[in-house]
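Reviewer 2 asked us to include a model.

Predict the structure of this chain.
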Amino acid sequence: MCPQHPEREAVCTCVRCGRYACASCERDEGRCSECARLSALEVPDSRERAHRATVLQYVSAGTSLVGLLYELLLVPEFGNPLAAERLSRWGVLVLAMAVVVATQVTLLMWVHRVVRQLKALGADIGMSPARAVWMWLIPLLNWVKPYHVMRDIAEKLGGASFVASLPLQLWWAANVLARILEKAEAKLLVRETATADTTTRDVVGLLSSVCAVAAALLYVQLIKELQTRLDRRREGMEEPEAPVAGDEAAAA
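Predicted model (structure tokens):
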């Protein structure tokens, strides 16, 4: 019988420690769940990368708020929309893009480490760490696949109930909408004619800032939730699949 689940029959013995393991405890390479966890500890944890990613997400949200305040308070003060206003708009946009690049790099470093840890824990999401990162970078695919990567990570860490508790759909909707509005805002800014529709440009800028702030805050929530669950998995603190009565355990 499996020592972890005394009511279940063992299907193999661990090649590392020799203990019996049921189908739920069997991991890759013939190891039991505990030996798989100990082997996974050889992979550096992702807590430091998660911390950097959350900090930069907060910075990204702050930059977006600066852009929002700029649209609400400073733009109406400009008298010449083709001179100082255009220059200041481009300055805010360049700053925002620099922060976005730094934020994306730290996020992908964290994703790479998380997927690597899951693979070591025997909870492979079906792709290598490098491929999971490329899902954010390949054109067209990066409009869909990052959502699936995050969903698969959550499912491997906590199952369907954990996935349902996370705001994955809301996060991805805010992220996609922010990207669309940023592209639209950039196109409006490159217009050089004085007849450009400044009202449309202002509205697009406001909506872009709001969506970017929402996406950054949702990113922070997801990173914290997933990292907390991963830390518990690495420490062997995840809850067993089903409670076992004391008399059944003693009989086994």
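The chain is about 65% helix and 0% strand. The longest helix spans residues 84-120. We have added this to the supplementary material.
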